[in-house]
Write a structure and sequence with these properties.
The chain is an alpha/beta fold. The chain has 3 domains: about 200 residues, Aldehyde Dehydrogenase, Chain A, domain 1 (3-Layer(aba) Sandwich), CATH 3.40.605; about 200 residues, Aldehyde Dehydrogenase, Chain A, domain 2, CATH 3.40.309.10; about 25 residues, no CATH class. The chain is about 45% helix and about 15% strand. The protein has 18 helices and 20 strands. The strands form 5 sheets. A 7-stranded mixed sheet has the order 11-12-13-10-9-14-15, with helices on both faces. The two termini are about 55 Å apart.
Length: about 525
């Protein structure tokens, strides 16, 4: 991979396009195998896996194939007037050699491993992909397919667990892209700091969902969206609803609808429905323990904690099955309230006012990756967004905003830092290389004014005012030449002079209004 940088072949748009087309062909030709591996590792239904893993990857590749030429084009930028004549430009170039490292997670082992890889390759970086060791079938399949389709100077897959990841992090990288937990993210960032390798951390946290008293009247639709977002991938989504906060006036309407849509979407017995499985028996056992803790609290006489549906009795941690469970008002100090749940357990906290809801959300640990609010009022939504810090927010739905390639998806504070998807992936995996050219000829340097001695006149009255001059916009010569040519031709066309006068008058009017606006703004 170092040789790839040394030859400079990865700077070309052709090299980048070749890698993207190769990855596109790999995914298209092995869809069935990828879907089967996802079912073996996570029990994902075919349609859910296709929509949340493969189609997302395909859309990302298609986006870059369509926009790669414009993304890689040299961008001319304005130059400070004091530096004229000079020509300034910015180019997106690959990051430092030898490569970028992508460390994939276990919850979406295909999409969350390949999406950042796509951005890395599009930006011209040779890439090493380290998929999650918890998804053995997907990991082995990706290693085999990448070795079959790619030259190792462009993309390789490294399998392994903690020891292999630790060894990889001892090397310098152009960028380390990690998706996973806050605990491991801290370790990754600390290790990368030893080699001064930049890091993007895509973490998670406790994402609250608040149903305000001004929620949409269709409570059934609200319940459908909440249960879908909570139980997608068996709750193993970094941006999934962690805790549901409901205004007390809507509890009696919403809770029955939540139970009804749960049974409609996953059946009376979710164990035989389309619900996925927890990726690791140890993780599943943790979820069972979380349920058992609130079951003990609910068993206390006159306890405000109520088990609405589900429970630990039908869970099977060895197979990864955790029964979808809804708990009303769990204790404030229980693990459901203090830890990221990352599974099919939905605690509901009732509040008597919007102010109380805001305080509950502010008191939750960390900064959430997403904040969800169900309300008909844009003003209410804006108020909550302002008072409750989060990396992103959505009104009247949940999770679906992650499908947008226009959003720079990423965390804030404890939910991570750095963003990606679409052009934002390209920017994250690129170095913005600055370039300026100035002719070297007599008289160009302000007649030697930039050089010492400045004295009592040249400095205050020539150099300092010159430095304050604004930047000069980029002059696109072709556009100006076309405009001048058309204007000149109009002089020899009947009524052409009149058209020129009208255009000049209109331009003068625009300039006059702009000047007035700027004066008022000042």
């Amino acid at each position: 991979m170092q040789q790839t940088h040394d030859t400079g072949v990865n700077f070309s748009t052709a090299w980048r396009r070749t890698q993207l087309e190769t990855l596109q062909r790999m995914v298209n030709e092995h869809r069935h195998e990828l879907l089967q591996a996802l079912y073996q590792d996570l029990g994902k239904h075919r349609t859910e896996a296709a929509c949340t893993e493969l189609i997302i990857v395909e859309n990302e590749i298609e986006y870059f194939l369509k926009h790669l030429s414009s993304l890689t084009a040299v961008r001319q930028v304005p130059t400070p007037a004091v530096l004229l004549p000079a020509f300034s430009s910015v180019t997106h170039r690959p990051l430092s050699a030898p490569a970028c490292l992508v460390i994939g997670p276990s919850n979406y082992p295909v999409s969350l491993s390949l999406q950042p890889t796509i951005g890395s390759l599009a930006a011209g970086n040779p890439t090493v992909l380290k998929p999650s060791e918890l998804c053995l079938h997907v990991s082995r399949l990706l290693q085999r397919l990448v070795a079959q389709y790619f030259d190792p100077s462009a993309l390789v897959v490294v399998q392994g667990g903690v020891a292999e990841t630790t060894a990889l992090l001892k090397e310098p990288w152009g960028l380390v892209f990690f998706t996973g937990s806050e605990r491991v993210g801290k370790l990754v960032a600390a290790a990368a700091a030893q080699t001064l390798s930049p890091v993007i951390l895509e973490l998670g946290g406790k994402c609250p969902c608040y149903v305000d008293e001004t929620a949409p009247a269709d409570i059934k639709a609200v319940a459908n969206r909440i249960i879908w977002a909570k139980l997608l991938n068996a709750g193993q989504t970094c941006a999934a609803i962690d805790t549901l906060i409901v205004h007390v006036s809507l509890v009696d309407k919403l809770v029955p609808e939540l139970v009804a849509t749960l049974r409609q979407q996953f059946g009376v017995d979710p164990a035989v429905g389309e619900l996925g499985r927890i990726v690791d028996p140890g993780h599943a056992a943790r979820h069972v323990a979380l349920i058992q803790e609130v079951e003990r609290a609910a068993a206390v006489v006159d306890s405000p904690t109520k088990m609405i549906v589900g429970g630990s009795a039908t869970c099977d941690a060895r197979s990864g099955y955790v029964c979808p469970t809804i708990v009303l008002n769990p204790p404030a100090d229980c693990r459901l309230a203090t830890e990221e749940i990352f599974g099919p357990i939905l605690p509901i906290r009732t509040v008597a006012s919007r102010a109380q809801a805001i305080q509950v959300m502010r008191d939750m640990p960390g900064t959430p990756l997403c904040l969800y609010v169900f309300t008909k009022s844009a003003a209410v939504f804006d108020e909550i967004k302002q008072k409750c810090p989060s990396a992103s927010a959505m009104r009247n739905d949940a999770l679906v905003h992650l499908a947008s390639l226009e959003f720079p998806f990423g965390g804030l504070g404890t939910s991570g830092y750095g963003g990606y998807h679409g052009k934002h992936s390209f920017e994250s995996f690129s170095h913005q290389h600055l370039s300026m050219y100035r002719p070297c000829a007599p008289g160009i340097d302000l007649c030697m004014a930039r050089y010492h001695p400045f004295g009592n006149f040249k400095g205050p009255y020539l150099v300092e005012p010159a430095v304050r001059l604004p930047s000069v916009p980029v002059l696109h010569c072709k556009a100006w030449m076309l405009l001048l040519t058309v204007a000149g031709a109009l002089r020899y066309v009947p009524a052409g002079q009149e058209l020129v006068k009208i255009a000049a008058t209109a331009l003068a009017s625009v300039l006059e209004r702009s000047a007035a606006f700027l004066r008022e703004g000042a």
